[in-house]
Amino acid sequence: MKFDLEWMRQHIEGGPEADTLAEALTHCGFLVETRDASEDSEIWDIEATTNRPDVMCHHGMAREAALAVGARLKVMDSTVEESGEPAQDLASIEIRDEDLCSRYVGRVLRGVRLVESPDWLKQRLERCGVRPINAVVDATNYVLLETGQPLHAFDLDRLEGRTIVVRRAEKGEILVTLDGENRKLCTDDLVIADRSRPVALAGVMGGANSEIGEETTDVLLESAHFEALPVRRTSRRFGIHTEASHRFERGADPLMAPVAADLAARLIAQLTGATVCPGRIDVRPRPWKPKEMSFTVSGVSRFTGLEIHGDDIVRILEGLEFRPGRDGDVITCVPPSFRGDIERVSDLYEEVIRHVGYDAVPAVLPILRTPPGRRHPNWELVDRGRRAAIGCGLTEAVTYAFIDPKIDSRLESWPLCPGPSVPLINPLAETQGMMRRSLIPGLLAAARENLNQGEADVALFEEGRVFSITEGDRYTEPEHLGLVLAGGGLALPGRDAVDFLEVKGVVEVLLRDVAFPPALWQRGGDPWLDEAEGSVVADGDGRIIGVAGLLGDDEAGRWGFKQPVYVAELLLQAAKAELDLPRFEALPRFPAVWADITVEHGTDLPYARLEAEVREQSDRLVTSVSLVTRYSGKALPPDRVRTTLRLVYRHPERSMTQEEVNAAQNALKVALVERLDVTI
Question: How far apart are CA 159 and CA 175, in angstroms?
Answer without folding.
Answer: 14
